[in-house]
Amino acid sequence: MRADCRGRAGGDRQTKAPPGELGSLGRYLAGRAQEHGKITRAMGDAIAFCPPLISSAREIGLIVVRFARALDDTRRWLRQ
């Protein structure tokens, strides 16, 4: 059994076009997540992370908080 969480970050919501070069958004988000202590894997502009199956509720909360910080950073980067 594997816990697998994936998120997709996109550019233009109307055209579904990613911002800039394909994969650049995923790489940026993965880098920001790592800066906040969350290891992720960029697959193009999609992000995957697989927390340990023995994670406590507190640890899962930390995963969510760290990834949310990375998403906030990425949102600010996109608005520049």
Automatic annotation (TrEMBL):
InterPro entries: PyrdxlP-dep_Trfase_small. The lineage of its organism: Bacteria, Pseudomonadati, Pseudomonadota, Gammaproteobacteria, Pseudomonadales. Residues 1-15 have a biased composition (Basic and acidic residues). This is Uncharacterized protein. Residues 1-25 are annotated as: Disordered.
